Amino acid sequence: MTRGASFAALLAVCLSAACSPKADLLITHGMVWTGLSTGNPQPGAVAIRGGTILAVGDSATLARYVGRGTRVIDARGGLVAPGFADGHTHFISGGFQLASIDLRDAATPQEFVRRIKEYAARLRTGEWIQGGDWDHTLWRGAPLPRHDWIDSVTPNNPVWINRLDGHEGLANAAALKAAGITRDTPTPPGGEVLHDRDGSPTGIFKDQAEGLIERAIPDPTEEQTDSALARGLRHAASLGVTSTAYMSASWGALASFRRLERAGRLTMRAALYLPIESWRAVAETVRARGAGDDWVRIGGLKGFMDGSAGSRTAYFFEPYADSAGYFGLLQHPERDMRTWIGNADSAGLQIAVHAIGDRANAILLDIYDSVAKAHGPRDRRFRDEHSQHLRPQDVVRFGQIGVVASMQPYHAIDDGRWVEGRIGPVRIKSTYAFRTLLDTHAHLAFGSDWTVAPLDPILGIYAAVTRRTLDGKNPNGWVPEQKISVGEALQAYTAGNAYAVFAERQKGVLAPGYFADVVVVDRNLFSMPPESLNTAKVTVTIAGGKVVYSRP
Q: Coil, strand or helix: which one is 341?
């Protein structure tokens, strides 16, 4: 046999099924959306081996990768897509909230008080009641709650329950006492404390003033924190979430993620963003020990420009339509934010800053632009967290400067119930401007802001595509010109989030060599009526090549 014939024979053998590497998992009979474009999915299969994608193609071709140990998952015509990423969560807080009091849908003040009473009755004396996520916009006249509503039903337990946006909370009399709050307690800059006519605190604290109460709350133990994280991970897996950017992380949270990773209990990748004020310590830690690994790493720094529209602390150029002469709050002086961002950028860290009002966003974009020009070209990927209310002239700057618009679509269908009353009919035209941002070449990274909104990415896709408000009053969409397609929304929940954390070469698409983070949905989202998208459910979640959730 000649050398050429021998090589040809060997090649034929190696191309046979017997020579093919065998998959650990094979997902068949799915509508596969790779995420490489926003176009429709195609019938096919995905092969997984050793934590990465082995192959993507039609089911017949990929049958060669099936061996004795291969687990075959039948997608039954459902959507097979890259695992969902949530670009903005408060993840461990979410885990605690899953086991805490739920006030999100308490539709009246009476229901609000009843739930607190029933919850308090199950606690030991002295235990704090936290969480809640109440929403006073559901109540007739939208009155803010007061501590005297709940003092009589919580005599033995301090209460600190937050509004769902996290920018204001209610403390009862026991909590006020524990924190040493009186009518003479000064309000910190960037915060607000509401008082009665006689000067007594009502129990409502906003933004930077929230720390007056929080300093009195005992820190959770490591065991409590790890339990909350584990609880959150189970919830995330059931929703197809395989990675997140954790936007309110602490050193304790970072330690908890690493403990669960070492124990083999981590089912989601996380980039953690620590407070921007601690930029020096973060820079020194990353320099000395590195940022982390593929599962847990320090993503960068998180700061705040302003508050929220729901708490009337978002910062605008024009006053609130329902609060004459009031423009909102800056949580920190502009000079401080400029200094922190400049120092953090000099240290090579990624920066993510919360900005909701149009003036807060404009100031942030100005700072980002000036810092980038002063420090020279670099792949920074500055992040604007929320990017909610924008002037038209500022929308185009995201693409021009290269700022990631990290947005939460569910907020649009929630806020759309009431926000026009706060800022009027003109400013809402460039609110949650998904379409215009994409059209002007901005990078979109979608998330939930959990626990501010539900963690479920499918609800976020539904919100971005339909913009149908939760009250049912906008069946054709609230500010409908800002709708986007299913493919565009999915891409913002996958490849867009991967780009936003510098991981676009590792995750966010289904392609050979990428992380085997995959979600299977029971239906093809692309062929469903848009108004039914919110009924789709995740059936299988795979993270790092392992099935971490399978729907019963």
A: helix
**199 and 173 together in one domain:** yes
CA distances from 124 to 98, 102, 132, 156, 461 (A): 19, 19, 18, 8, 41
Nearest-5° angle of CA 535, CA 536, CA 539? 140
Distance CA 417, CA 473 (A): 8
- DSSP labels for 210-231? GHHHHTTSPPPPHHHHHHHHHH
- Specify whether 9 is located in the same domain as 50: yes
Cα R_g (the chain), whole angstroms: 25
Tell me, what's the pLDDT at 8?
A: 37
Tokens of 221: 């133990």
Strand runs labelled E in 121-263: 129-134, 159-163, 168-171, 191-195, 201-207, 241-246
Range of the domain at 46: 1-83+508-552
Distances (CA, A) of 339 to 41, 332, 344, 345, 370: 46, 11, 8, 10, 12
- Give the CATH number of the domain where residue 57 resides: 2.30.40.10
Instruction: Provide φ and ψ at 235, rounded to 5°.
Output: -65, -45
What letter represents residue 165's amino acid?
A: D
Asked whether residue 128 falls in the same domain as residue 196, the answer is yes
One domain, residues 73 and 2 = yes
**Alpha-carbon gap, residue 323 to 41, rounded angstroms:** 48
Identity of the amino acid at 430 = S
Chosen domain end from 214, 238, 265: 214
Read off the pLDDT of residues 66-88 as tens digits, 9 standing for 90 and up: 999 999 999 999 999 999 999 99
Q: What is the phi/psi pair of residue 43, to 5°?
A: -60, 140
What is d(CA 298, CA 274) in angstroms, rounded to the nearest whole number?
A: 8
pLDDT in tens, 5-51: 432 333 343 444 456 799 999 999 999 999 999 999 999 999 999 99
Q: Roughly what angle, to the nearest 10 degrees, separates helices 457-466 and 486-493?
A: 140
Tokens 């992040």 belong to residue: 383
Scanning 15-68, the segments in alpha helix (DSSP H) are 59-62
* Residue that is last in its domain, among 185, 214, 243: 214
Cα gap 452→88, rounded to integer Å = 10
pLDDT in tens, 121-142: 999 999 999 999 999 999 999 8
Same domain, yes or no: 74 and 127? no
Helix H or strand E segment including 86: strand 84-89
- 112, 189: one domain: yes
What does pTM read for this prediction? 0.91
Q: What is the pLDDT at residue 323? A: 87
